[in-house]
Task: inverse folding
């Protein structure tokens, strides 16, 4: 495959949901897009239950092949890179294939996360190895990909790293896991992941690397619709395109550098800037309100730290 003459984006967890939306918005913004996930073709069955209490391997809608076709329909090239966030060898192979095939990477979007038991189980019911899996997938996998891809990005003068994080990184659940809250492993792993962008900003901004946290808020994805109702989460969130629009803006806007090292609340940012025409903005449901309170608290803490260091 010939090297890409267009800028190149790499998106993990791109078979459906937020990752797919990011891939399509980046394709529309002029990027060739490398996409990674476990599901290569529609109808593949694998375990995706969030709890140890039962198994669920019913196929979910979405696949790399489907996303790749949609990317190509937008006039971009697509490169499918099947990988598992719990398999470091597969991630290394994906990074090597990307750089060998297209010779560059300009934007990396870390959207994929651990899918499986422990996500909606309470702490005393969760074996430590499941918490370790969440840390491996949600923190260590992005760190590995960064170490493999950032040198090539820096060599070309820089680029952007976008971490799709979660309010669970800095907000406490109001209910236990399984009753509207989430498992400790998810919050702890996302909390650690939340810290990465600031360190990349401090160390690599002068070399052209911009690093962002994008907090999506509650988003109505295929998996939310299929799996999460029993845990207190309904499909009443924002469309995935909200996050895709914000990520594309960060990848292309001359104003984006000012946000490097910071956390962007995607739904409010998208609404305030009118990035998704026709979308009325965040809904005042309990999830949106919780995320808004968490965002306000984070801003308050950031102001306090800035005042102390002044």
Result:
């Amino acid at each position: 495959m010939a090297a890409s003459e267009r800028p190149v984006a790499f998106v993990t967890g791109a078979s459906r949901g937020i990752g797919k939306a990011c891939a399509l918005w980046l394709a529309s913004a002029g990027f060739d897009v490398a996409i990674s996930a476990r599901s290569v073709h529609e109808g593949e069955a694998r375990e995706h239950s969030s709890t140890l209490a039962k198994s669920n391997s019913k196929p979910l809608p979405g696949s790399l092949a489907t996303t790749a076709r949609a990317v190509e329909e937008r006039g971009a090239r697509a490169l499918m890179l099947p990988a598992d966030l719990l398999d470091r060898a597969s991630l290394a192979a994906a990074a090597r294939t990307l750089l060998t095939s297209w010779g560059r990477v300009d934007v990396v979007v870390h959207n994929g996360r651990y899918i499986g038991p422990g996500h909606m189980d309470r702490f005393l019911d969760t074996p430590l190895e499941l918490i370790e899996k969440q840390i491996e997938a949600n923190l260590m996998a992005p760190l590995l990909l960064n170490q493999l891809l950032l040198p090539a990005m820096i060599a070309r003068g820089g680029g952007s790293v976008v971490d799709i994080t979660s309010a669970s990184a800095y907000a406490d659940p109001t209910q236990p896991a399984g009753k509207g809250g989430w498992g400790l492993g998810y919050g702890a792993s996302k909390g650690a992941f939340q810290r990465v962008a600031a360190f990349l900003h401090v160390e690599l901004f002068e070399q052209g690397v911009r690093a962002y946290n994008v907090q999506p808020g509650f988003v109505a994805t295929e998996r939310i619709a299929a799996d999460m109702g029993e845990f207190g989460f309904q499909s009443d969130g924002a469309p995935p395109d909200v996050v895709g629009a914000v990520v594309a803006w960060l990848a292309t806007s001359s104003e984006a550098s000012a946000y490097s090292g910071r956390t962007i609340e995607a739904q409010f940012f998208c609404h305030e800037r009118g990035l998704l025409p026709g979308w009325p903005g965040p809904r005042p449901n309990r999830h949106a309100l919780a995320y808004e309170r968490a965002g306000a608290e984070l801003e308050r803490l950031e102001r306090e730290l800035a005042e102390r260091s002044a």
